[in-house]
From TrEMBL:
<dbReference type="Pfam" id="PF00149">
    <property type="entry name" value="Metallophos"/>
</dbReference>
<dbReference type="InterPro" id="IPR004843">
    <property type="entry name" value="Calcineurin-like_PHP"/>
</dbReference>
<dbReference type="GO" id="GO:0016787">
    <property type="term" value="F:hydrolase activity"/>
</dbReference>
<protein>
    <submittedName>
        <fullName>Metallo-dependent phosphatase-like protein</fullName>
    </submittedName>
</protein>
<dbReference type="InterPro" id="IPR051693">
    <property type="entry name" value="UPF0046_metallophosphoest"/>
</dbReference>
<feature type="domain" description="Calcineurin-like phosphoesterase">
    <location>
        <begin position="40"/>
        <end position="249"/>
    </location>
</feature>
<dbReference type="InterPro" id="IPR029052">
    <property type="entry name" value="Metallo-depent_PP-like"/>
</dbReference>
Length: 290
């Protein structure tokens, strides 16, 4: 896969401007319908030892950096807090601060054990589900009033979680940017686009990563810190929900339709696509007003 371009040149600038204008004209919104089997997912990240009051829900997701320093005591206190929440399902992935959970990192940097002999194996997880480059299928109860006995009483929700983020400083679960293509393609290769039929395996409902994909809630000053290779896989598998954190100043929520127009736009913005992508956007959408 081609490396994203980082140099600034005027032709690329105008391609990006035009692609952004075409996407704004396209402006599709997600097709959200009211389902009788809807569930509520509470999403948090980067709490760094803070334990806020949380709203109720069916699934609680913490997208990493539960702690500040990643010591055993900090991690255990954070897990105990999550486990005490009333949500039926509590899902946790690690972040780059949660060094206790990355044994490979600690072998290289034993000083980050802070003199504590206890390891990840000594943690009491309670009813917290920890995902590390792994997938789980939940059977979430449906709470619709007057539901017929013949109707399903649970809804299956497939969730994949990964703590990996691009290398920045010395922290846990980080990868050199050059390994991004193989890391994400190998990890997510067995997941399919949930909107496609037929499919060999069920689609992924929720993807949890500590870091963002490129272009989405990843602004840090003038720099976009997201991973383009993660974006490529997200565009392919199109999960219903992607939960992430890591870039504190870019927190928020964004509703996105991952269709061909947006993929062409993203390729232009990253530097993977040229005027041919802009031309394809024009074919699909039309020329924006100037």
């Amino acid at each position: 896969m081609q490396e994203p371009l980082t140099n600034i040149n005027m032709p690329r600038y105008w391609r990006q401007r035009l692609a952004a204008a075409i996407l704004a004209r396209h402006a599709r919104k997600p097709n959200v319908t009211n389902h009788t089997d809807s569930i509520r997912v509470v999403c948090i990240s980067d709490t760094h030892n803070y334990q806020p009051n949380l709203p109720p829900g069916d699934i609680l997701i913490h997208a990493g950096d539960l702690t500040e320093n990643g010591s055993f005591d900090e991690v255990q206190a954070g897990i105990a807090w999550l486990s005490s929440q009333p949500h039926p399902f509590k899902i946790l992935i690690a972040g780059n601060h949660d060094v206790l959970l990355d044994e490979a990192f600690l072998q290289k940097h034993p000083e980050r054990r802070y003199g504590q002999p206890k390891t990840k194996k000594d943690l009491d997880w309670g009813d917290v589900i920890y995902l590390q480059d792994s997938t789980i299928t939940l059977d979430v109860p449906i709470h619709t009033p007057n539901r017929a006995a013949s109707q399903p009483q649970t809804r299956k929700v497939i969730i994949h979680g990964s703590p990996r983020t691009p290398q920045y400083g010395i922290s846990a679960f980080q990868y050199p940017p050059t390994t991004g293509p193989s890391l994400w393609s190998e990890q997510l290769s067995h997941h399919q686009d949930h909107t496609t039929e037929p499919k060999p395996t069920p689609g992924l409902d929720i993807l949890i990563t500590h870091g963002p994909p490129k272009l989405y809630l990843d602004h840090r000053d003038i720099h976009r810190a997201g991973c383009p290779y993660l974006l490529s896989e997200v565009s392919r598998i199109r999960p219903r929900l992607h939960v992430f954190g890591h870039i504190h100043v870019a927190y928020g929520r964004e509703d996105v339709v991952l269709d061909g127009v947006r993929q062409a736009h993203d390729d232009v913005q990253i530097g993977w696509g040229g005027w041919e992508c802009v031309a394809w956007m024009v074919v699909l959408v039309g020329v924006p007003n100037t």
